[in-house]
């Protein structure tokens, strides 16, 4: 190990805080016993109130807002954001369906602004001070929506926003079964490069999309071994505990394995050996 390997600052960021109590408990466990330093709160999540209580009881966890325009119910009244919801009163089931509707011109940006404002306001009204914004399935980087996110961040005094541009690495090209993931990763990087969010404060690098939802210890070690030196990096992760009642089994996330990896003493030792310092978004 050379001196150049030392000095990176790492934000270990748990998405989907508020999705369920099983996810919430795992986020806190991976913060207390592992390397998670930050999380983003889903204002429309089923376990939002539970997450708020946990966040208030653990002030060392850096909390942001997980802006959501897919899968969930809106935070604003559905009648106020009609272009965002279907007959069931819910958002589009996935970012792909949302993007198709967006590209057809079926999504009103006034509705997007109203909904995202309602989500941030709900977090603030519950007594939390979000340090950053990111997006569920990264729809916050779409043109037009990114501009709204930047404006809302300024209006709420939120300095940092995630740009999910993970650089391509050699190990990502070895598994042809994950070629679709690489294509999605390149698309996100392109959108991020052109985004007005680049003007806001954020991490120098973003990692974790390629192994999204599958960040077991082996995959986590692979990601950490390729961290750039002397940079501020955000590592996206999805801790959770197994929950047979979950409505999100179709995601096929390895929640428990990810929680175990984030809490592994071997991972902590690896970071210490490389001189990596753990921080939150509020530290940049």
Description:
The protein has helices spanning 21-32, 48-57, 95-103, 109-125, 145-155, 179-193, 217-225, 255-262, 265-274; strands at 9-17, 38-41, 62-67, 132-135, 160-161, 205-207, 232-237, 277-279. The radius of gyration is 18 Å and the shape is globular. Helices cover 36% and strands 13% of the residues. The chain has one domain (3-283): Alpha-Beta Barrel (TIM Barrel), CATH 3.20.20.370. Strands 1, 2, 3, 4, 5, 6, 7 and 8 form an eight-stranded parallel beta sheet that branches. α1 packs parallel to α2 (48-57), α1 (21-32) runs parallel beside α8 and α4 (109-125) packs parallel to α5 (145-155). β1, α1 and β2 form a beta-alpha-beta unit. The chain is built from nine helices and eight strands. The longest helix has 17 residues, at 109-125. By secondary structure, the protein is of the alpha/beta class.
Q: Give the helix tally.
A: 9
Structural class: alpha/beta
Helix percentage range: 25-40%
CATH superfamily grouping: Glycoside hydrolase/deacetylase
Tell me the number of structural domains: 1
The span between the termini is 26 Å
In the predicted model, the low-confidence regions spanning at least 5 consecutive residues are 1-5
Order of helices and strands: EHEHEHHEHEHEHEHHE
Characterize the biggest β-sheet: 8 strands, parallel
Overall, the morphology is globular
Any idea what the radius of gyration is? 18 Å
In what range is the share of β-strand residues? 5-15%
CATH class: Alpha Beta
User: What is the fold named in CATH at topology level?
Assistant: TIM Barrel
Total E-strand runs:
8
Mean pLDDT: 94
Task: Tell me the CATH architecture.
Answer: Alpha-Beta Barrel
């Amino acid at each position: 190990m050379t001196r150049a390997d030392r000095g990176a600052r790492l934000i270990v960021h748990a998405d989907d805080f508020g999705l369920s109590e099983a996810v919430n408990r795992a986020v806190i466990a991976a913060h207390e016993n592992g390397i998670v330093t930050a999380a983003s709160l889903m204002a429309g999540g089923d376990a939002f109130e539970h997450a708020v209580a946990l966040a208030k009881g653990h002030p060392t966890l850096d909390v942001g807002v997980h802006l959501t325009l897919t899968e969930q119910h809106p935070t604003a009244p559905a009648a106020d954001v009609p272009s965002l919801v279907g007959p069931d009163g819910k958002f589009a089931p996935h970012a792909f369906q949302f993007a198709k509707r967006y590209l057809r011109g079926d999504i009103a940006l006034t509705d997007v602004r109203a909904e995202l404002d309602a989500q941030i306001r709900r977090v603030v009204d519950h007594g939390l001070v979000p340090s950053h914004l990111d997006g569920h399935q990264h729809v916050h980087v779409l043109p037009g929506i990114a501009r709204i996110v930047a404006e809302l961040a300024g209006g709420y005094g939120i300095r940092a926003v995630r740009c999910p541009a993970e650089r391509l690495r050699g190990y990502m090209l070895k598994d042809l079964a994950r070629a679709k993931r690489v294509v999605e990763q390149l698309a996100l990087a392109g959108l991020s490069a052109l985004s007005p969010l680049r003007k806001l404060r954020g991490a120098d690098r973003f990692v974790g999309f390629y192994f999204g939802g599958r960040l077991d210890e082996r995959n986590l070690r692979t990601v950490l071994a390729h961290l750039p030196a002397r940079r501020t990096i955000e590592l996206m992760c999805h801790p959770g505990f197994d929950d047979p009642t979950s409505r999100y089994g179709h995601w096929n996330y390895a929640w428990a394995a990810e929680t175990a990896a984030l809490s592994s003493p071997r991972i902590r030792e690896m970071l210490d050996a490389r001189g990596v310092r753990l921080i939150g978004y509020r530290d940049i």
